[in-house]
Amino acid sequence: MTDVLFIASKRPQLGVFTDSLVKFRDRGAKVYLAGTFRMASVAEELTRAELDGVHQLPRNLNKRSSAMRRKAKKSPAGMRVWMQAQRDRWLRRQARTAHVIVALDPGAVYTVWRLAQYNTAAEAHFGIAPALRAVDRISGGTLRPATLPPVGAVARDVGRSISGLPAAVMRTATSRPVMRSTVGARLWRSAVTVPGMPGTVRATASRYVAEGMEEAGRISGAAIALSAAAAKIPDPALKAQLLHESAMTEVSKGISPRDLGNVVDGHLANADAEYAKGSYESAAASLYRALTLNFHRVLHIDQLSSPLAKDAEGFVAPLQKSPAYRAAARPRGRKTPPKSPPTDRPLRLLVTTSSNANFLQHILTRYEDHPGVELRFLDLGAQKQLKRIAWSAPQMLEDRLSDGTSEYQRDVERLMRPHLDWADTVFLDWSVGPAAMLTTIDPGDTRIVVRLHSYEAFTLWPHMTDFSKVDDLVFVAAHVEDLVTSLVPQLREASAPRTHVLDNAMELTGFLRPKSADARFNLGLIGIGQVAKDPQWAVDVLKRVREHDERYRLLLVGGDMNPKTSKATADYLTLLERKLKPLVKSGAVVRLGPTDDVPAALTDIGVILSSSVREGCHVGLMEGAASAAVPVVRDWPFYAGKPHSARTLYPEGWVVDSPEEAAKRILEVTATEETWRDACKQASEHAIGTWDWSVVQKHFDELFLG
Asked: Which of 126, 410, 491, 620 is the most buried (most CB within 10 A)?
């Protein structure tokens, strides 16, 4: 026997209701009805219906406290029904034993949901037809979790609520307690996808639902509600906006969006539609959103992995299907080839960057005093107008789409032409905004050289740069060149620039200083300010070597991660701090913090670690090796097993596959003073002989002057 409990907040259509009772009885069900409407007015009809139980629920809150009555006045109708009914003993007793609990009208939905919390084995539904199907399933021995699948009435009720109720009231209906429940979350998530709801109402409803789910900790549920509503909206602009909000709901919590592909496709579809109409500003805005989301730092930088590690070319393939993207990325080429270096005067070399000259010190010093070079340095970030045009991505994209002479292009021409006219060669460090900016105009006969480190590969900027106007592209490592070439189709075309792999300019001889007596047992990690450095791996290595000898310590050099960078960074930092706390307390880990004298810090370090998941060349590791610390390099997981990786950048003996192998190498090379000193000497000789500026500067001379 199946017990079915109906709840009604207003008089039901008795003809329809009583006719349906025959179907329930035919299925062997017992049917009960409880209502907050005036049941005495239909007592005769209910008697003829021969229900198994009829109960009048309280019709008002007159006997309740004044505070409760005030609260009821501010609450939606459905919540007021629950306030009236929640203390009714008959209702609670019947609800605990019912197999199916059914709302006959929208006002009863909230009460049914609350009753389902006390009887989690019952199925909860809205409407007669779903209730009949539930009885059929139960009769057949098939049960499912309680749900309240919405029908047209729910859609109409939601629509009226959104249109007519204040935002505060709507938020109450989608509040945290409701969304914490699987029943409530499913109800509202389904309610925003029912047919017949206007797009703007659907979007507003889904935003309220997402807000409530976020407050209830259902982050993925919030994202699903927004994307599900977006799927029912025909307007491409509104659809793209809602999809973007869906993705950013997860991104803001440090989660890679599960629906990333659809979100990016939504932006691209809107960009294509606007581009086809000649609405270049709107198309550029949508294209910019697609690129910023596709290359958001939470996906690629603030995680221990990235979609690019698995299939870089496949990850960017959807971009190539977009006419708007192809138009923006199309190579324009330069009008004239660069002139040859002058023979009757020094080469005019313009070195430029935007607020990041970290890797330019030795280059600037060398060519300031070079007899064959006249040097100028331009920091685009130091001048307001130049900084503005260097990072105006939407304007760059609009310029590319319009394929004409835009106001932005005229600004770039006005501000950069004097520098281009003076220079024979421009060396632009970092392939980010300034590179994209500079390639919006023709360089004339000035040679353009751009250096790309590693960070840029995980950003949108290489996809916005017209490399057909770049003559030479410099990479800091071969594995970075492989990655970027796979990401940017333009670099595989005939218009691509010449490419070079040049090591960073580092003065390494000054790092070779006498080690302290304890250095042999001190592991060092330089730079812990990014998730990609993965210092937890180094902590794992430390624990393994200390199982053999507690003299081993880990010295951390550099500033900590900034938890404000992203939620993903904050989450990683929380786990790291949890692991470090007891080790710092015991003295096994020493946090040295940031320092301006890295060579001095390295005198106490006898083993230098690279625990990163990815690197360009890892300057800190190279400096440590030059100081005569034994290098132990994790086979960076992002590049491991590829044609170029840590194993092709460093000597084979330096690279390990796991913390176990790292610990084994450390224990072997530090087993005796003699073995450690010998390994230190070999490492220092290799580092200084390969990467010191005295060696590398010859390659830069050849690049600029050869």
From this structure: 126
Q: Annotate 581-619 with b (16+ C-beta within 10 A) or e (fewer).
A: eebeeeebbbeeeeeeebbebbbbbbbbbbbbbbbbbbb
Tell me the pLDDT tens digit for each residue of 391-417. Answer: 999 999 999 999 778 999 999 999 999
The tokens describing 633, both together, are 């390099």
User: What DSSP designation does 669 have?
Assistant: H
Integer Cα distance of 32 and 17 in angstroms: 12
Is residue 479 within 8 A of residue 640, CB to CB? The reply is: no
Q: Are 412 and 441 within 8 A, CB to CB?
A: yes
- The b/e string for 283-314 (b: 16+ C-beta within 10 A; e otherwise) is bbbbbbbbbbbbbbbbbbbbbbebbbbeebee
Burial of residue 677 (number of CB atoms within 10 Å: 0-12, 13-18, 19+): middle
In whole angstroms, what is the distance from residue 110 CA to residue 117 CA? 11
**pLDDT in the model for residue 188:** 61
Among the listed residues 191, 174, 256, 187, the one whose alpha carbon sits nearest the alpha carbon of residue 223: 256
- Answer whether 131's CB lies under 8 Å from 29's CB: no
Euclidean distance between CA atoms 623 and 632, whole angstroms: 13
Strands (E), 540-635: 553-557, 589-593, 607-610, 630-634
What does 82-116 look like in DSSP terms, one character per residue?
HHHHTT-HHHHHHHHH-SEEEESSGGGHHHHHHHH
Residue 8 phi/psi, 5° resolution?
Answer: -135, 135
Contact 401, 408 (CB under 8 A): no
8 A C-beta contact, residue 29 and residue 3: yes
The model's pLDDT over 357-385, given as tens digits with 9 standing for 90+, comes to 999 999 999 999 999 999 999 999 999 99
Provide the residue type at 658 as one letter. Answer: S
* Cα–Cα distance measured from residue 47 to residue 53, given in angstroms and rounded to the nearest whole number: 10
Q: What is the mean pLDDT of residues 202-219?
A: 78
Cα–Cα nearest to 505, from 609, 378, 367, 380? 367
